[in-house]
Amino acid sequence: MTALLEVSGVSKSFDGFRAINDLSFAIGQAELRAIIGPNGAGKTTFMDIVTGKTRPDSGDVLWGERSVSLVRMSEARIAREGIGRKFQRPTVFEDQTIAENLTLALRSARGPLSVLRWRPSRASRARVADLAAEVNLGGALHRKAGELSHGQKQWLEIGMLLASEPRLLLVDEPAAGMTLAEREATTALLRRLAETRAVVVVEHDMDFVRRLNCKVTVLHQGAVLAEGSLDHVSANPQVIEVYLGR
Ligand SMILES: Nc1ncnc2c1ncn2[C@@H]1O[C@H](COP(=O)(O)OP(=O)(O)OP(=O)(O)O)[C@@H](O)[C@H]1O
Fold first, then answer.
1. pLDDT > 70? residue 56
2. At residue 114, does pLDDT exceed 70?
3. Which of 54, 102, 121, 157 is most buried per CB count within 10 Å?
């Protein structure tokens, strides 16, 4: 596996507490990966470090074919490098339509100058339609985002992230608050997206993780406790003790 992202010996303490403790693992170029672990295991801090929100105390995060270090880059620069992050709560513009939300995302993906010079073109309209179709919203381009279900808003936000063509998508607890049908469609969406880019999903819902049918990394006390298929990690006595058995 050629790594797209390599976390190498990363540690981060908050007030003397080691939230991330010599963490090392890698994500491949076109890979779907689930990250699970108990509350406080360091999952959010890991994403904060990758996206530049939090600086590690030591260790490195290497990115891409040239293994450039992300740890001293700004959040904006890291986003431009091709790392998109989907937070748990959707942050779409509720008064705007799906098409308008996606158009805004497309404009900002092209940089601040193109926002000023932006003229709607046939190509950009086609791209907006493609993005909507990619996230199961092709038939609803002119609906206001505020009218969408929670799951549909999550998809719209994923579509907005796709506007900047990320090579790595970090997705925080996508299943929370979704109906069963939405969960199933979301699993299919994430699996499809991971055919051409890396998708890392942090999730507590084990049924959802099972449906993702991908390699799982279990974090505990800021380090990797186990890694492999869900069946493999679920059979690990330490994983059962600290997480699954509770
Ligand atoms: N900015 C911060 N200041 C102080 N402590 C922090 C900060 N961020 C995280 N922590 C602590 O670091 C530890 C790891 O937290 P983190 O949020 O990364 O865990 P998590 O695995 O995402 O948990 P959850 O599943 O509950 O979201 C926790 O004990 C948390 O209280």
1. yes
2. no
3. 102
**Bridge partners of 136?**
none
Note the pTM of the prediction, 2 decimals: 0.93
CA dist 198 → 55, 171, 175, 243 (Å): 22, 11, 18, 25
Q: Which of the two residues, 119 and 200, has the higher pLDDT score?
A: 200
Task: Measure 187 CA to ligand 1 centroid, in angstroms.
Answer: 26
Q: What is the pLDDT of residue 1?
A: 61
pLDDT of residue 116: 59
| Smallest CA separation from ligand 1 atom 12, residue | 19
Q: What is the mean pLDDT of residues 132-159?
A: 95
Check if 51 has its Cβ closer than 6 Å to any atom of ligand 1.
no
Give the CA radius of gyration of the chain.
Answer: 18
44 lines ligand 1 (CB under 6 A): yes
CA-nearest residue for atom 27, ligand 1, is: 39
- The verdict on domain 1-82+166-246 having CATH code 3.30.465.10 is no
Nearest atom in ligand 1 to 15's CA: 4
**CATH 3.40.50.300 segments of the chain:** 1-82+166-246
Does the beta carbon of 41 sit less than 6 angstroms from any atom of ligand 1?
yes
Q: What order do you get walking across the sheet with 83-86 strand by strand?
A: 83-86, 168-172, 198-202, 32-36, 215-220, 223-228
